[in-house]
Q: What sequence folds into this?
């Protein structure tokens, strides 16, 4: 008999979270097995987007896991969604190509009008429309989001957008993009977090008609871009929620994002530990497996310990989220622990492979580069520590 899935909202301490959703793990693993090392190497060599992979995940319904059934999704919990992301990265794949399709729509789901949800969510759930992009970061203001300079000025039934964004991912593989822009100048708001608004930009109408997209070559094969807005017209009906409250809506979605990204890091971490262990068992130098040397096995064991600990914090954060309870602290801690654990595991795996770790055919150098990104994006480690210091430990605000 198939194991009964555990409801994460009521999960008890003696239940093993790794036993959750075995059927999801098996199904995602078997889908990912169709996209082997040769596939990912070919995609990278060609600087291409893993279109066939993203399409397969979409068609199987995995990327609409968080869309409620009423809008055509499967209405799974965040815990289940995190297991999907973990398994993709654990299989050697890269969720960075598709994770946006799972969580960007959360802003629309929570803050959009019923008409907006009916208009877009079923099409996102079926994969007919891709909403994989979210444009927040700007070149001159970086993490200091409230100072962003892109403006959206209302003119009749439209907003006119001007400004610039940077590092905006998957724009060329999305139909819809969330945009955060200033609708009231900073010097006219009571609080600096006010006066920002979120819009759905239909990229099919926008590109070439006020929006220019310039790809950024980068360290990983990640489709990311500079965006230039020059009097782009966005219909006023595409404003999400109330004008001026957009930052709150974006921040509101960040806990889910942090937990899902933590799960990707955990998937990477397990992949690195498994690769390192296999190699350390098989590679014979000085007439014995290198893994017989404690100087080789201890770092692998430590990396595993850290991944396991990070995974527990991910489950705790996801459980709180699914129960509708505050989880800012746990989501941030999970992301930090998981990003650190995957990066350490990557380093250990590379070291364990000696020179072969640098050969592209082993995939380790690719995954090493991919997992490094999580120290910076979507939120840098320092900013998480700053959140914990200020909001959890009540230390003085530093900025
Ligand atoms: C591949 C890639 C994809 C991305 N995709 C997207 C996307 O789709 N959408 C989007 O909006 N953004 C995206 N980003 C942007 C990403 O979220 C930012 O790069 C990240 O948040 C850091 O911002 P920044 O690069 O402006 O760094 P900065 O804010 O300039 O910070 C630089 C460094 O200084 C540190 N720092 C800054 N201020 C402080 C402080 N007060 N205390 C301590 N340390 C500080 C930071 O931690 C960081 O290490 C992406 C980035 C990359 C690299």
A:
């Amino acid at each position: 008999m198939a194991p009964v899935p555990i409801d994460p909202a009521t999960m008890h301490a003696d239940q093993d979270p790794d036993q959750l959703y075995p059927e999801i793990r098996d199904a995602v693993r078997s889908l990912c097995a169709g996209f082997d090392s040769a596939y990912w190497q070919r995609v990278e060599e060609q600087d291409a987007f893993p279109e066939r992979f993203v399409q397969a995940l979409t068609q199987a319904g995995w990327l609409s896991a968080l869309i409620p059934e009423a809008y055509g999704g499967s209405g799974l919990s965040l815990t289940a969604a995190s297991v999907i992301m973990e398994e993709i990265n654990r299989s050697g794949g890269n969720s960075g190509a598709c994770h946006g399709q799972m969580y960007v729509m959360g802003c629309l789901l929570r803050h959009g009008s019923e008409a907006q949800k009916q208009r877009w969510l079923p099409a996102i759930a079926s994969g007919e429309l891709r909403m994989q992009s979210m444009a927040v970061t700007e070149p001159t203001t970086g993490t200091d989001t409230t100072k962003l300079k892109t403006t959206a000025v209302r003119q009749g039934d439209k907003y006119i957008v001007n400004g610039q964004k940077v590092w905006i991912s998957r724009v060329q593989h999305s139909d819809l993009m969330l945009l955060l822009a200033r609708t009231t100048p900073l010097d006219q708001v009571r609080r600096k977090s006010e006066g920002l608004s979120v819009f759905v930009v239909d990229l099919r109408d926008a590109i070439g008609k006020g929006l220019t997209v310039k790809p950024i070559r980068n360290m990983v094969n990640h489709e990311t871009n500079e965006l230039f807005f020059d009097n782009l017209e966005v219909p006023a009906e595409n404003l999400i929620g109330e004008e001026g409250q957009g930052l709150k809506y974006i921040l509101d979605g960040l806990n889910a994002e942090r937990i899902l990204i933590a799960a990707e890091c955990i998937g990477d971490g397990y992949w690195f530990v498994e690769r390192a262990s296999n190699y350390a068992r098989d590679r014979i130098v000085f007439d014995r497996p290198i893994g017989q040397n404690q100087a080789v096995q201890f770092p692998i064991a430590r990396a595993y310990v850290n991944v396991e600990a990070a995974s527990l914090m991910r489950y705790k954060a996801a459980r709180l989220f699914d129960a509708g309870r505050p989880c800012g602290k746990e989501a941030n801690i999970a992301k930090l622990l998981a990003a650190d654990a995957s990066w350490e595991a990557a380093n250990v795996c590379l070291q364990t492979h000696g020179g072969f770790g640098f050969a592209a055919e082993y995939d380790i150098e690719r995954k090493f580069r991919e997992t490094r990104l999580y120290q910076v994006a979507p939120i840098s480690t320092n900013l998480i520590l700053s959140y914990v210091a200020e909001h959890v430990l009540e230390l003085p605000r530093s900025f």
About this structure: Residues 89 and 268 are 5 Å apart (CA to CA). Residues 251-392 form a domain with the Butyryl-CoA Dehydrogenase, subunit A; domain 3 fold (CATH 1.20.140.10). The first helix runs from residue 22 to 33. The longest strand covers residues 158-169.
